[in-house]
Design a protein that fits this description.
Number of strands: 19
InterPro entries: ATP-NAD_kinase_N (IPR017438), ATP-NAD_kinase_PpnK-typ_C (IPR017437), NAD/diacylglycerol_kinase_sf (IPR016064), NADK (IPR002504)
EC number: 2.7.1.23
Pfam families: NAD_kinase, NAD_kinase_C
Subcellular location: Cytoplasm
Helix content: 10-25%
GO molecular function, one term: metal ion binding
Order of helices and strands: EHEHEHEHEEHEEEEEEHEEEEEEEH
């Protein structure tokens, strides 16, 4: 690895010294480096055109690690840029909870030392692929976290769900989502889904505010094909792939399965999923782990 591709979004509220710190860290890293043009416009100094990029190409991605600077929303946008190029992504957290972007921004300079020394591992993470003959899905029909159906009006949404052609149930309520293991700590967690180790080969189907309180999340193998048939008294409802939403008409059908290719995350070897989980969820802070 000999190249850093920095991706971030305008509007993070960074001060001029903070912006300068990012550039100084890149310049001192010893790597060849590039910055996406929209973010570069917010920087405190002008960068040479040769340091800027608009989209990722095979040439740019070769031998590179993408550094996502921001929160998990920024990381999901970085995934859309990097997907398909076998380029690992590392998240520097400038957001809040940060399960994807889990490296503290204060440690950004030390990240380059770890990368230079090869003290990191690359983890493949499952992506969802979503198809529909009723809805035109954007040019990136993939999701790292989840695909969801959710109401936009007061009327309840009815979603028939089939797993490998066999009916599971009809979810009545605010909606339903299908989550990857990576996404189990995102929207799925907030609706009561289980936390899943990201290396597990499974999906989670979870109802969103179900009308029938016996409805519970279901874990299925990631080899399954899931079909969702959407009905609602309202003429339209909504579907989302990660943090992108679009309107759909009642009667739309979707097929969700494991994407052919994974996305790759760079993980510093001293930060495990369980470390991140324990710290972000603040487990053990009540003192019981220490015998008190």
């Amino acid at each position: 690895m000999n190249k850093i591709i920095l991706f971030s979004r305008p509007g993070l509220g960074l001060t001029a010294p903070e912006l300068n710190d990012i550039l100084d860290a890149l310049a001192a890293s010893g790597f060849d480096w590039y910055v996406n043009r929209p973010f570069a416009r917010t920087l405190a100094r002008e960068l040479p055109a040769a340091r800027l990029y608009d989209t990722v190409s095979s040439e740019l991605a070769e031998g590179a690690v993408m550094l996502s600077y921001g929160g998990d929303g920024t990381f999901l946008e970085a995934v859309r840029l990097a997907y398909g190029y076998d380029m690992p992504i590392l998240g520097i957290n400038y957001g809040h909870l940060g399960f994807l972007a889990c490296t503290p921004r204060e440690e950004m300079a030390s990240v380059f030392d770890e990368l230079r020394a090869g003290r990191y591992e690359v983890q493949p993470r499952t992506m969802l692929h979503v198809e529909s003959q009723d809805v035109r899905i954007a040019e990136h029909p993939y999701a790292l976290n989840e695909f969801s159906i959710h109401r936009t009006e007061i009327n309840m949404t009815y979603t028939d769900v089939f797993v490998d052609g066999r009916k599971l149930t009809t979810y009545r309520g605010d909606g339903v989502l299908i989550s990857t293991p990576t996404g189990s700590t995102a929207y799925s967690l907030s609706v009561g889904g289980p936390i899943v180790d990201p290396m597990c080969g499974c999906f989670v189907i979870a109802p969103i505010a179900p009308h029938n309180l016996t409805m519970r999340p279901v874990v299925i193998p990631d080899t399954a094909r899931v079909t969702l048939c959407v009905n609602s008294r309202a003429p339209y409802t909504a579907a989302s792939l990660d943090n992108r939403s679009f309107q759909i008409a009642a009667g739309a059908t979707f097929t969700v399965c494991k994407a052919e290719k994974p996305v790759f995350l760079a993980n510093l070897q001293n930060i495990s999923f369980y470390d991140t989980l324990r710290n972000k969820m603040m487990w053990g802070l009540d003192g019981w782990e220490n015998g008190r």
